[in-house]
Amino acid sequence: MSSCTLCPRNCKADRNSRKTGFCGVDSTIYLARAALHMWEEPCISGKKGSGAVFFSGCGLRCCFCQNHDIAIGSRGLPITVERLSEIFLELQEKGAANINLVTGAHYVPQIVQALDMAGEKGMDLPVVYNSSGYEKLETLKFLEGYVDVYLPDMKYMESELAQKFSHAAEYPETAKAAIGEMVRQTGKCEFGEDGYIRKGTIVRHLILPGHTRNSVKVLKYLHETYGDNIYISIMNQYTPVRTFDSCKELNRKITKREYEKVLDAAVDMGIKNGFIQEGETASESFIPDFDYEGVEKNIP
Q1: Contact 32, 290 (CB under 8 A)
Q2: Which pTM value belongs to this model?
Q3: Tell me: the pLDDT tens digits for 185-214?
């Protein structure tokens, strides 16, 4: 953390000296929420709910981020590694199906410590690593043996879009390598008799308005590369969280026709292992309240 290169930005910020990196945070762990989350894929949330731990800050910081308030590092309460381990145990006590680490790449060393501490005290839930897909191989390798399920995005196959929306023209190649490492670690998806995923990689793709061509390219790459070894989650829930002047196409939700076009392409490719969204999912109700629920210790 004294010269941070945990994410592909390699900004080398001295986060131990309270300097903030591109991710927007120093070495202190900041959390915005730690609670049962019912809105993930059915095999992750189910009826129990996923024990979602929302970390503040992000090394990618897309302009359209649905969790914009916490991605820029402006929301979150500071906690210790010891408190993070307690939160994992508290989520287990609440009946969570798993521990869901949401955007934690810039905290991987602390996460590993906290998982070790929680494991020593009986935490035995599957661990889900919920990621933008913009990850370094070296950082992912620290997580081998700790993460059971990887849940990365594959946002772009077009580097022009990656630069325009995320200031990361190298995103396609970076995410390809990262997802390859995730699949290497977890292997083919495995599910329990209760329907919950126990091991594997589910790749999410959020369709952006006006960019179905990019979406089809993403699906084609994933299916040709991994076939039935992964699941693909095709999402239509994009919601404009603010008004864009330079990216006007992002000022609307995707249309029913746009979603159907991408789904039709998936069927034509032969994709069978996947999730789709039905009904009115493009709603701000899918964005949780970052009200610090579950972050502070509840002392009777």
Answers
A1: yes
A2: 0.96
A3: 999 999 999 999 999 999 999 999 999 999
